């Protein structure tokens, strides 16, 4: 399932549907003793990551190219989903790249490959294996090392902007070409490359491009973990000159928030010993630091966020007369009809997160007593001042008692109910508490009459603390629902304004009800 899943996503009903994503895993790659394929200078290696899908190897991602280096440490971090109950085969292929032609698939550019599973790397944390050429031949003494890290829940990321001033000049005829590397120092004293900036040519006071790294990658989410930052003078033959280094922590970096800057002396330990009045080899300045926290659904629930559910039921005539056994609203004394089955299936999952277990239950598209005028947002317990029912069972009872009293009618207008819940969510938004989230569950048999208004209402709602789950009941044409879901592209209002977030999830109940 490659679609972004929103809460309440129905699993695809296929035997090989993945159960649960256990976590995401970050993989870092380095190689030693690569074969030298270039006559004049050393190989320019690049790693491709392939995954097996239906027996075929597919390229998932590739690293940067490192010039003239037979022992490369790649800065690229590969991220893969880890399903622990599946055997997920990986293949790493190392190629000697030739600039613009891209990574060659010529045999003479192939420096070797290695296969393993995600499970092996996760279990061993660090895997070193020989690289093999075609037909099982060893690629000399070449090895590849893959290090894995599971991304913990706290995967916010941080954006950093560095510059340097007055760096030492390492080049005779021009100025240094500096780049910066950041290493995280792990508990076993080993160093993990976190990030390598671009090279700024011919400049002793470079300003590097801002970049983003996950907190997991930068410091394993520990603010006091030591970081080593190194400035190099780039050399096209791979023999970079050391300019200087400094040590810091994420805790110290955070002083650069707002208007403040943090700076460090960039030190060359050799010069410090040799030169008597040596001060530094330049200074490195952190111009700006922004922390982007990424909160998960569970972070909100554990932080005390209350979820408020509203169920909206389609009472339009297209459902069929409730007295007729073909109707989706058929009142069957022996077993629940399609609407009740869908309501219970989704409601039972949702009610666990609703602290007071009270559900607002609304109907649309029917003529209702006393005057039998059409309503698109009536309380099915006929109490306009309090439309809440006690638990899913309360909704079921209100539904059963309301059916005989109303006349199924039309049209199928969904926008009024979306707007009604949105008004409540907007009031909550004004409190700035983030303590309530609203979920609207719409049960409908298909085609929406007020599609333009509905799209407009969803775009408005996407700015509020609410989500919409639409369950399609019966065997109608659900094309409209697929459009609202927005998985095939971004849903836009009639004026062309896109949704701020994808808040709609559509589930055809016919595909869902047979899955255990």
TrEMBL record:
InterPro entries: C2_dom, C2_domain_sf, C2B_Copine, Copine, Copine_C, VWF_A, vWFA_dom_sf. Residues 3-131, 138-265 form the C2 domain. Keywords: Repeat. GO terms for molecular function: calcium-dependent phospholipid binding. GO terms for biological process: cellular response to calcium ion. The keyword Repeat applies. Pfam families: C2, Copine. SUPFAM superfamilies: C2 domain (Calcium/lipid-binding domain, CaLB), vWA-like. Residues 308-507 form the VWFA domain. The keyword Magnesium does not apply. GO terms for cellular component: plasma membrane. Belongs to the copine family. This is CPNE7 protein. It comes from Halcyon senegalensis.
């Amino acid at each position: 399932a490659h679609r972004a899943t929103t809460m309440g996503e129905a699993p695809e009903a296929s035997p090989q549907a993945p159960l649960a994503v256990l976590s995401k895993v970050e993989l870092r790659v380095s190689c030693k003793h690569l074969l030298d394929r270039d006559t004049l200078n050393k190989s320019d290696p690049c790693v491709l990551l392939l995954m097996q899908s239906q027996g075929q190897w597919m390229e998932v991602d590739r690293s940067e190219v490192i010039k003239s280096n037979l022992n490369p440490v790649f800065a690229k971090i590969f991220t893969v989903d880890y399903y622990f109950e599946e055997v997920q085969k990986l293949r790493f292929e190392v190629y000697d790249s030739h600039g613009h032609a891209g990574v060659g698939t010529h045999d003479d550019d192939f420096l070797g490959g290695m296969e393993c599973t995600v499970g092996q790397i996760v279990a061993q944390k660090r895997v070193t294996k020989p690289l093999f050429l075609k037909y099982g031949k060893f690629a000399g003494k070449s090895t590849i090392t893959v290090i894995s890290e599971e991304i913990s829940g706290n995967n916010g990321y941080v954006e950093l902007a560095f510059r340097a001033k007055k760096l030492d000049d390492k080049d005779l005829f021009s100025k240094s070409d500096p780049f910066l590397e950041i290493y995280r120092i792990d508990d076993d004293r080993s160093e993990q490359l976190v990030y390598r900036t671009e090279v700024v040519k011919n400049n002793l006071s470079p300003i590097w491009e801002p970049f983003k790294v996950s907190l997991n990658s930068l410091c394993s989410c520990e603010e006091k973990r030591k970081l080593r930052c190194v400035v190099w003078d780039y050399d096209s033959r791979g023999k970079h000159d050391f300019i200087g280094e400094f040590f810091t922590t994420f805790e110290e970096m955070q002083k650069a928030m707002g208007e403040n800057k943090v700076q460090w002396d960039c030190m060359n330990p050799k010069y410090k010993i040799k030169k008597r009045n040596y001060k530094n080899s330049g200074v490195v300045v952190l111009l700006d630091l922004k922390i982007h926290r990424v909160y998960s659904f569970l972070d909100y629930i554990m932080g005390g966020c209350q979820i408020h559910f509203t169920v909206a039921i389609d009472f339009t005539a297209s459902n069929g007369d409730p007295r007729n056994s073909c109707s989706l609203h058929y009142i069957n004394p022996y077993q629940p009809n399609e609407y009740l089955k869908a309501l219970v299936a989704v409601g039972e999952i949702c009610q666990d997160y609703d602290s007071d277990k009270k559900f607002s239950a609304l109907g649309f598209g029917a003529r209702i007593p006393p005057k039998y005028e059409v309503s698109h947002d009536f309380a099915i317990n006929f109490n306009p001042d309090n439309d809440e029912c006690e638990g899913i069972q309360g909704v079921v009872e209100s539904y059963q008692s309301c059916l005989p009293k109303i006349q199924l009618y039309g049209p199928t207008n969904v926008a009024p109910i979306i707007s009604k819940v949105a008004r409540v969510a907007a009031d909550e938004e004004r409190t700035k508490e983030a303590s309530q989230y609203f979920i609207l569950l719409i049960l409908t048999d298909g085609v929406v009459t007020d599609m333009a208004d509905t799209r407009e209402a969803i775009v408005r709602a996407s700015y509020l603390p609410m989500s919409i789950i639409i369950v399609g009941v019966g065997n109608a044409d659900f094309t409209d629902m697929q459009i609202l879901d927005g998985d095939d592209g971004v849903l836009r209002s009639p004026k062309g304004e896109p949704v701020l977030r994808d808040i709609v999830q559509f589930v055809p109940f016919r595909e869902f009800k047979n899955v255990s």
